[in-house]
């Protein structure tokens, strides 16, 4: 690991000032925020990220950063709430199973105890070509160099949202649940606080895969806001190579509102198959106002994956992603809601 300076402000505005330095995007900045550090420190050890300064935000004195607030028309979750704390909150377990199930399946207990939710949504890809600097061709790590994964070992890479410049997978579990619920992100920057739709936080790779989000250097996520009331008819299903602590080959976060067996509203986020947390809007449109059956679920899933682009080793993700969505929809429909 390379030498770096360390700052530990107690004021959020001071943290933003320290981190607001010239850079093309927050991931390219020489100044990085450190929360739990469960991804950042790994990447520093691998020499993939080389920040010159870490700004430790764990001592910030704003208590709202650590608060879970169930308000009449929204749920507000501070960015310094840990994965474990939200997962174990009885009210969230009862009212938002889509959130707690995605957190429970997202990491080991040790990591959930350490990791903050603000950092969780900004975790970087587990693409082995990105995480190994001995591979020179990685547009995400070394812009303009090429993408080794295109014709390499790409079993774990994305089939949705890809480009000719990058097929790296977004590996997180909680983010698909957030995108499905139309969450918003509160961001503190140099010009003050702004609200960003979670669906607009992450960027498709396009020709600039090294620019992963729409955050600028110094932008600090302070909270997640989920509109509406409880989402009890919701769940998260994850398919992986092994049950314990493994990233998804395919996953689905589903929340339904039903009139009998007719879908009044469907919200679907996909993980394990895309370059960003993926909102399955095509499938949602096909399901609204229709009876939810295995046939209608299969038709919606097939339509969502029509745009999939596969490589040599990840063809299986199309069939697996479709089956995971269908299973999740039917299991959500079958939930008994008190």
Automatic annotation (TrEMBL):
Keyword Flavoprotein included in the entry's annotation: yes
Keyword presence, Flavoprotein: yes
Residue ranges occupied by any FAD-binding PCMH-type domain in the UniProt entry: 1-231
Database matches in InterPro entries: CO_DH_flav_C (IPR005107), CO_DH_flav_C_dom_sf (IPR036683), Diverse_Substr_Oxidored (IPR051312), FAD-bd_PCMH (IPR016166), FAD-bd_PCMH-like_sf (IPR036318), FAD-bd_PCMH_sub1 (IPR016167), FAD-bd_PCMH_sub2 (IPR016169), Mopterin_DH_FAD-bd (IPR002346)
UniProt KW keywords: FAD, Flavoprotein
UniProt-listed PANTHER family: OXIDOREDUCTASE, XANTHINE DEHYDROGENASE SUBUNIT C-RELATED
Protein name in the entry: Xanthine dehydrogenase family protein subunit M
The species this protein was found in: Sphingomonas morindae
């Amino acid at each position: 690991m390379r030498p770096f300076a360390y700052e530990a402000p107690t004021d959020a505005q001071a943290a933003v000032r320290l981190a607001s330095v010239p850079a093309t995007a927050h991931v390219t900045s020489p100044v990085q925020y450190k929360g739990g550090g469960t991804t950042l420190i790994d990447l520093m050890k691998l020499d993939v990220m080389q920040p010159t300064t870490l700004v430790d935000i764990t001592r910030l004195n704003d208590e709202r950063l650590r608060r879970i607030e169930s308000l009449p028309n929204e749920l507000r979750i501070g960015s310094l709430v840990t994965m474990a704390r939200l997962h174990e909150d009885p009210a969230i377990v009862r009212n938002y199973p889509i959130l707690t199930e995605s957190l429970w399946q997202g990491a080991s207990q040790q990591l959930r105890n350490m990791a903050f939710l603000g950092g969780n949504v900004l975790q970087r890809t587990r693409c082995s070509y990105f995480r190994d600097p001995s591979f020179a061709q990685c547009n995400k790590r070394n812009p303009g160099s090429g993408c080794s994964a295109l014709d390499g070992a790409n079993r774990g890479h994305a089939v949705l949202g890809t480009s000719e410049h990058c097929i790296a997978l977004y590996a997180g579990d909680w983010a698909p649940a957030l995108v499905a619920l139309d969450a918003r992100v509160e961001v503190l920057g140099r010009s003050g606080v702004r609200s960003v739709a979670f669906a607009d936080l992450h960027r498709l790779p396009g020709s600039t895969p090294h620019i992963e989000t729409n955050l600028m250097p110094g932008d600090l996520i302070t909270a997640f806001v989920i509109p509406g009331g409880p989402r009890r008819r919701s769940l998260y299903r994850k398919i992986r190579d092994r049950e314990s602590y493994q990233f998804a080959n395919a996953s689905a976060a589903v929340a339904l509102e039903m009139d009998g067996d007719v879908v009044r509203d469907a919200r679907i986020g996909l993980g394990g198959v895309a370059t960003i947390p993926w909102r399955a809007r095509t499938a949602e449109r096909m399901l609204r106002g229709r009876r939810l059956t295995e046939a209608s679920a299969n038709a919606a899933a097939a339509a969502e994956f029509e745009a999939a682009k596969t490589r040599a080793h990840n063809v299986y993700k199309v069939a697996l992603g479709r089956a995971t969505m269908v299973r999740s929809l039917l299991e959500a429909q079958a939930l008994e809601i008190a």
